[in-house]
Amino acid sequence: MKALDRFIQNRRMAQVRPYLPPGSRVLDIGCADGALFRRIPGLGDYVGLDSALVEPVDRPHFRLIRGTFPDALPSHEPFDAITLLAVIEHIPPDQLARLARECAAHLKPGGHLLITVPSARVDRILDLLRFLRLIDGMALEEHHGFSAGRTPAIFAGLGVDLVKHTHFQLGLNNLFVFRRRVSP
What we know:
Layout: H1 3-16, E1 26-29, H2 35-39, E2 46-50, E3 57-59, E4 62-66, E5 79-85, H3 96-105, E6 107-118, H4 122-131, H5 151-154, E7 160-168, E8 173-180
Parallel strand pairs: 1-2, 1-5, 2-4, 5-6
Antiparallel strand pairs: 3-4, 6-8, 7-8
């Protein structure tokens, strides 16, 4: 991963940090090398899933698992937060509904689902940066033309409410924060 890739990744993590208080049990879908755990100190149990993970890690409070969500998840114990940082645009359209249902099912009441999605024009910019060898541009070829504006509709009716949508990185990236409803 090049320096610019890491910078972009760090900006995404900075956006979700306020929703990950100390002691949080976090599921990081598409975790890469587990950088979120290292970048945000004080997290409780961290489980990272990534189908491209080179080597699994199993330490106290820190697990990296090779595989896809939810199939590779070792237990059904719910999480305080689930993150999908620059992941949803990599999911084939016919798998988005299942992803949304499973995220809602694995989130504790009151927990947060934290999603970053690049704006549509980002792919062209990233292609240029990759051509110039300024970034590695992790798995750009896997993007499915996902429009960030579709994100709320995918999670509608699943017991999670959109509490924040904002743009960052000069409007090139989106943060969606959903909160699981607490039963009355």
